[in-house]
Design goal:
alpha/beta; 399 residues; Rossmann fold; elongated; 42% helix; 15 helices; eight-stranded mixed beta sheet; binds magnesium ion; binds adenosine-5'-triphosphate; five-stranded parallel beta sheet; 2 domains
């Protein structure tokens, strides 16, 4: 949770509308201090224009010592040099004009990503010399409309679990990606902005491209215009995914319904291939062809996970029929529910809106069992280079 400190309720509401989900409004400095004492996950405080300046400087000075990871963003009606100097001395991260709504949003994004990077560094330091690489899951189906985006968005939100884990959801459906719409995001940057950086892409550059959604859930969205897809070289995708695996413990990749070079780059970087089918013959035929292609390309079967979406549809095909046809076990069955499209229309993943829903439970169980697995219980897996797969990236232990 992050905080908006603003005494004027109308101004506070407008700030929350600007900043989106995951922000709590507090009306007094005292209340804010109390929240921050117990909320050690908070990463940003936006302080509205109606809060007394001296109080803000005193708060920022104390937070600088007690919570150096917490970003303080100060909004003022007018910004003079003297104010900026004072703010800098107090440790305030940014001062923005109260009417500059896109500037406020950008500053909040920067603060979230800085907090994330600091968090990662703390993890690295705690882990000694290990260079942990995140687990990357590519969600794929060769037939359109099987539920890739539904699974990818809900899986990412389920793993993030309100900030318990840090997850980056990447929309690799470069022409028609709808992650931004499904999550009601208003991104200022997209994956296309990585192209000019791809030879020198580093964490600082990546931080500017990421759009935060809710605690623990970050996104790298698809270009806003379909034509941009062709201008993104595969090497950019390789660089992006490689870097995200270094920055996030979990990376979920949504894909278009086709074996594009971009998708193959994601497969190369994947620890888990989440392959979806629905209970209809064309979808199952496509999945069978997909599995045969993956075999031909030598993607190890240990990484395959087959999920059946809308698995309870009464269409005359049984689970046994499907397993016999595909000759692989089904790792998860996601029921059909009208609440799924309704949640997409609301722009909130079902796992966040209705965590107890049967669809949410199926996706969360899949995530915990097949993505998190034993990774969180045995950090040692991050300490050694991988020797198992044909992936392009290897975990490197720092020497
Ligand atoms: N379990 C489910 N129950 C009911 N509706 C679902 C379920 N899963 C997905 N849907 C609906 O099916 C439609 C297609 O889902 P989604 O967009 O996730 O598929 P996709 O594979 O990403 O499609 P595309 O190939 O076009 O990217 C959406 O309207 C979604 O709300
Ligand atoms: Mg999709």
């Amino acid at each position: 949770m992050s905080y908006i400190l603003e005494a004027d309720p109308a101004a506070a509401d407008m700030l929350r509308a600007t900043l989106g989900m995951g922000w709590r409004i507090v009306g007094t400095m005292e209340l804010l201090r109390r929240h921050l004492t117990s909320d050690t996950e908070a990463h940003t405080v936006v302080i509205g224009a109606n809060v007394e300046q001296d109080d803000v400087f005193a708060l920022a000075q104390s937070l600088r010592l007690t919570r150096p990871d917490l970003g303080v963003i100060l909004l003022r009606r007018s910004i003079e040099t003297a104010l900026l100097t004072q703010a800098l001395r107090a440790g305030i991260r940014e001062v923005i004009g109260e009417r500059d709504l896109s500037g406020i949003r950008d500053a909040a994004h920067r603060s979230a990503t800085i907090a994330h990077a600091l968090h990662e560094q703390a993890h690295l330091a705690a882990d000694g010399n290990a260079t942990p690489l995140g687990r990357l899951v590519t969600v794929f189906a060769a037939k359109g409309g099987c539920g890739k985006t539904t699974l990818a968005t809900n899986l990412a939100a389920a793993l993030a679990d309100g900030g318990r884990r840090e997850v980056c959801l990447v929309d690799l459906d470069l022409a028609f990606g709808d992650v931004a719409i499904a999550l009601q995001l208003f991104p200022t940057h997209t994956i296309a902005d990585a192209v000019p950086l791809s030879d020198n892409l580093d964490e600082t550059g990546m931080v500017g491209l990421i759009t935060p959604h809710s605690p623990g859930l970050f996104t790298l969205v698809a270009p806003l215009e379909p034509g941009m897809a062709e201008t993104i070289p595969v090497k950019t995708i390789v660089a992006v995914l490689h870097l995200l695996k270094r920055m996030f413990p979990y990376v979920i990749v949504d894909t278009p319904p086709a074996f594009t070079d971009h998708v193959l780059a994601a497969f190369d970087a994947s620890d888990v291939l989440a392959l979806i089918a629905t209970l209809d013959v064309p979808a199952l035929k496509n999945l069978k062809l997909t599995l045969e292609t993956l075999d031909l390309l030598n993607y190890p079967r240990e990484k395959w996970r087959v999920l059946l979406n809308r698995a309870d549809s009464k269409v005359g095909l049984s689970l046994a029929d499907v397993e016999n046809t595909l000759r692989v076990p089904i790792s998860a069955q996601i029921p059909s529910s009208r609440d799924v499209p309704a949640s997409v229309n609301r722009g909130v993943p079902l796992v966040l809106d209705a965590p107890g829903h049967a669809v949410s439970s199926a996706i969360r169980d899949f995530g915990l069992r097949h993505v998190v697995g034993t990774a969180e219980r045995s950090p040692a897996i991050h300490r050694h280079p991988r020797t198992d797969g044909r992936g392009m990236f290897r975990r490197k232990a720092k020497t």
